[in-house]
Design a protein that fits this description.
single chain, 71 residues, alpha+beta, two-stranded parallel sheet, 3 helices, 2 strands, 54% helix, elongated
């Protein structure tokens, strides 16, 4: 799972980033990306999101192919 989180400067939760990190740490095959931007990360950082999505999907694909070769 690929997770994007903004720095949360606009919200009242002091440990916003820590909460997101804790959540991601309990997931299998998860990556958390912290973006310095506002809440609507897809509007503020579309190029970063697109690039990271492609890298993440390619990594999953490569790992899956490696697993299939061992069958």
């Amino acid at each position: 799972m690929l997770l994007y989180v903004f720095y949360g400067k606009e919200i009242a939760v002091k440990n916003w980033i820590q909460l997101q990190e804790d959540y991601a740490s309990h997931l299998t095959h998860a990556k958390l990306l912290k973006l310095e931007c506002g809440h609507y990360v897809h509007n503020h950082k579309p190029n970063s999101i697109s690039k990271e999505m492609k890298l993440f999907i390619n990594k999953l694909y490569i790992n899956k192919r490696k697993e299939m070769k061992t069958w």
